[in-house]
Amino acid sequence: MRTCIPVEDSLDLETPFLSPNGASERLPPSAVLDETALFTYLGGVVPRRTFGQWRYRGLGPRFVKLGRHVAYRKVDVDEWLAGKASGASPSLK
After folding, report:
1. What residue ranges in 1-93 does DSSP mark as E strands?
2. For residue 13, what is the domain's CATH number?
3. What's the average pLDDT block by block, 10 residues per block, for the chain (93 residues)?
4. Is the Cβ–Cβ distance between 31 and 5 less than 8 Å?
5. Which of 3, 64, 70, 72 fits a disulfide with 37 by CB distance 3.0 to 4.6 angstroms?
């Protein structure tokens, strides 16, 4: 079972985007990830059941419903991650 679906028809559909070690540098910005691919893309640091809790609470990355399936656009995940980044804390004087 594929864990991410390319949107462009011109992509090679036989080559998986995620390698066994989770490297995602080949994922195009238009890739669509299921929860397994999202788990791998985030490095496995977030428990999979957390994604459902985030959806319910409106806290996680934007998602789309494809019938009864949930998918995440890579561009939305990257945007969400960028919004979660924190800079260095200011030094106390």
Report:
1. 4-5, 32-33, 64-66, 69-73
2. 1.10.10
3. 47 42 65 93 92 95 94 94 78 56
4. yes
5. 3
